[in-house]
Automatic annotation (TrEMBL):
<feature type="compositionally biased region" description="Basic and acidic residues">
    <location>
        <begin position="30"/>
        <end position="40"/>
    </location>
</feature>
<protein>
    <submittedName>
        <fullName>Uncharacterized protein</fullName>
    </submittedName>
</protein>
<feature type="region of interest" description="Disordered">
    <location>
        <begin position="1"/>
        <end position="50"/>
    </location>
</feature>
<feature type="compositionally biased region" description="Acidic residues">
    <location>
        <begin position="18"/>
        <end position="29"/>
    </location>
</feature>
Length: 477
């Protein structure tokens, strides 16, 4: 039975005919969207063209679906174990929108017979339906709720030729098998945008039971396909730009907000890694052994930019040869290589004491206790000093607000570094060269020498000399 234009039209009407059975969010809805990039927005550089698509909520019957040719595996591969599991699930349960996500398909605007569809969400379920014998199961007229996206024929044809069939052999389904993944580099960006919007939907992702590997792999491939090398290099070198980049993706509905853990940004940081570390990370991800605690993936990215081979080798030993704490510490060492690394007992922590702040050379490392005078703030800013203030008072903290937010951090330190008894005290660090904001959590471990404390918070330090001013470093006994 060939699908007809009448079927395409009736499929759209089914939802509105039954609108009294569902809430307003499930009634027929058609939306047109454009993926034209706003050049002035600074959004990720991509290969997008001006392409429109329509979204419609529909229902089609099992009989109608069985006449269609289906392809998919864009968002994730097919797992034979999942197919075997679904054989034992009733269709009513399989497509219950309280328990399962709404299936999503893409069709060509010019395919009036609706004979072909690319499945974005629900691939396992629709593949299972195509194996049903309608006569014996009496499910011929069972209606399946769907989101349908219509795209231009050329876009659909390109994607279709690179997607995988959802008809699988018995031998595939009888073993613990996983289908191939679609090469997303061959999929038009408008299709990928629809996929990203589908994936970022909390209900789709949660009820659809996406694994972290599938989610991360898809987003990584999307970013790899749409962000060019120049933009990647810019993002590697500018921490603030990374946050702005991600927020724009969030605003477009393509990804989840970063949150304190930044776990949703794992695929983004893998994208920014150098090749060997990137390949090792993807391999670990596939094996379910990629570390995400304490935002360690940011350390991996930073270390890979310094020494890709050493970072990849270190990561490959996790978790069998190295635990997460040691891994993070070693990654920080790699990130700081080529910078002056001071030994804990090298004894090089002498002060150079000046009579006035004006005598301190530009870009010097400075230590002050409790306070810095308000009238010296602009001078300190102009000199681009690297400053540590132990136990800062309220006036000092207020004055520190004149530094850019990314160049200031309130932390804690053992007062043993300035001849105290080992108690933990507040500490203000600020100035040019301050540790990347993304690497400040958890804070660098404390040190027993002031010179080492400075080298950890200012990893670009080239010398150990510490400057101060009379009256601003004396510590009460």
């Amino acid at each position: 039975m060939e699908l007809s234009l009448a079927f395409r039209q009736s499929a759209r009407l089914i939802d509105s005919d039954n609108s009294g059975d569902e809430d307003d969010s499930d009634q027929e809805e058609t939306t047109e969207k454009s993926t034209e990039k706003d050049e002035s927005s600074g959004e990720p550089t991509s290969k997008r063209k001006k392409l429109e698509y329509e979204e419609t909520k529909i229902e089609i019957t099992v009989a109608q679906l069985k006449e269609m040719e289906l392809r998919g595996t864009i968002l994730r591969p097919i797992y034979s174990e999942k197919l075997s599991e679904l054989r034992r699930v009733k269709l009513e349960t399989m497509f219950d929108l309280q328990k399962a996500s709404r299936t999503t398909i893409i069709v060509s605007k010019t395919d009036t017979n609706m004979s072909q569809a690319i499945v974005l969400e629900g691939s396992h379920r629709l593949s299972t339906v195509q194996d049903l014998h309608c006569a014996s199961t009496r499910y011929s007229n069972f209606r399946i709720p769907m989101n349908m996206f219509e795209v231009e024929d050329g876009i659909f044809s390109t994607a279709w030729s690179n997607c995988l069939s959802l008809n699988f052999s018995d031998s595939f389904k009888s073993h613990s098998s996983v289908s191939s993944r679609v090469d997303l580099n061959l999929i038009p960006s408008v299709i990928l945008d629809i996929g990203m919007e589908t994936h970022s939907n909390e209900q789709f992702r949660t009820i659809g039971k996406y694994s972290s590997n599938d989610s991360t792999s898809f987003i990584f491939k999307y970013l790899e396909n749409t962000v060019n090398d120049t933009e990647i290099e810019r993002l590697r070198n500018h921490p603030r730009a990374r946050g702005e980049f991600w927020k724009k993706l969030v605003k477009r509905g393509l990804v989840l907000a970063a949150g304190p853990s930044k776990v949703s940004m794992v695929p983004f940081y893998i994208l920014l890694m150098k090749l060997l570390s990137q390949m090792t990370s993807l391999k670990k991800l596939g094996a379910g052994k990629f570390p995400t605690a304490n935002r360690i993936f940011i350390n991996v990215m930073s270390a890979s930019l310094k020494d890709d081979a050493a970072t990849a080798e270190l990561l490959s030993g996790y978790p069998s040869k190295v635990g997460v704490i040691k891994l993070q510490n070693e990654l920080r060492k790699i990130s700081s290589q080529d910078n002056a690394q001071l030994n804990e007992d090298d004894g090089k922590s002498d002060f150079i004491v000046h009579d006035d702040f004006a005598d301190i050379e530009d870009s010097s490392h400075c230590f002050f206790y409790r306070r810095i005078p308000k009238d010296a703030i602009q001078m300190l800013l102009a000199k681009k000093l690297k400053i540590i203030v132990a136990e800062p008072n309220g006036e000092c903290i207020h004055s520190a607000s004149q530094w850019p937010a990314e160049l200031i951090e309130m932390t804690t330190v053992s007062n043993v570094v300035y001849n105290g008894n080992g108690e933990v005290r507040s500490c203000l660090v600020m100035g040019q060269g301050l540790l990347d904001p993304e690497l400040r959590y958890p804070p660098p471990s404390s040190s027993r020498k002031l010179s080492n404390l400075i080298s950890k918070w200012f990893p670009g330090a080239k010398e150990a000399t510490i400057h101060t001013v009379k009256g601003h470093f004396e510590i009460p006994q």
